[in-house]
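Appendix C. Worked example: Retrovirus-related Pol polyprotein from transposon RE2
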Amino acid sequence: MDDADLPNPQAQTQNPNLIQPEPQAHQDLSPGPEVVPTVGLDSLGLDNTSNGQSAPMGKGMRDKFPSVLLRDFVTHTVVAESPSPATPSPQHPSGTPYPIAHYINCDNFSVHYRKFLAAIISSNDPKSFKEAMKDVGWQKSMHEEIRALEENGTWTLEPLPKGKRALGSQWVYRTKYFSNGDIERLKSRLVVLGNHQEAGIDYHETFSPVAKMTTVRAFLAIAASKNWELHQMDVHNAFLHGDLEEEVYMKLPPGFESSDPNLVCRLRKSLYGLKQAPRCWFAKLVTALKGYGFLQSYSDYSLFTYTKGNVQINVLVYVDDLIISGNDSAALKTFKAYLSDCFKMKDLGVLKYFLGIEVARSSAGLFLCQRKYTLDIVSEAGLLGAKPCGFRSSKITD
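Step 2, the predicted output written as structure tokens:
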């Protein structure tokens, strides 16, 4: 497969899987009272007049209005063109009765950090392949991902053997940011539908290098108390570094076709979504860290420590994200160069955002906040415009 296999927007009609939906008439989807169409006598094929007088309306023909209790919520329904005077609705410039910005703010943050928060909160990543195909930037990102997979030798195209089943795949889209809030790149990741794997056939052992939250807090607390530097690095396509021992087949990625419809991808390297992929990658990383002189913690396998003379370096691993802290800037620089030689790394600079936690540092220490993570949960529940409610918090005692 090459880049030509992914059709451009002008040639999408050649592939029925990539046909974009036809533009629909504009609809006003701003919040407001729900409109239920009334049924008239004309629609039933009857005459609605009798001797010049209007026919009486039956029970099913009366106008319906939403409950007044719904005024406290955003119902995402069509707004009536001529609302009834009996049920006036409040007018709000933003269309939301209770904007979340009226109840939380970032006044206590610096201008530089406010820019970072605004960037990560305003991201709107595609939820599906069809949605991503509408943006040229995401199309280019998918081209780059496929090119990287092919250059890495992730798969070979082969006919599907008899008795074998090919797994499906899907695209996952994420916007990556620099530590200052600027967009680094649009990341498209091809993920295998590993939920269809069969134990003992498609995989045997599994393990995921996920740091415990207690370890994360202790790691950051030690760095803050000793005034150590905190850096963050990301491994580019980390799971592709693992060697795959099992015989696993995958269907062609969405948006890509082969001249032979009988060909499928036989995976030679581990890929995101496979149940054994995290274990394969972590084995490679542990080998590299121990080769540098790190010791792996028995309490949390994701924590590694290095001590040589007065130099101390700690590394915390969460899948493909690494937090690095230490007391020597030169030693940290040397270690990061070593990692870049072993893997394709991205230096994200000073730690700002990790596992949904926003990290702000000052002379007084570290401030951890999960504002974006919390707002994402509220937004997914459809309650971002709901009326806030106060509650009593428990008193903190020593």
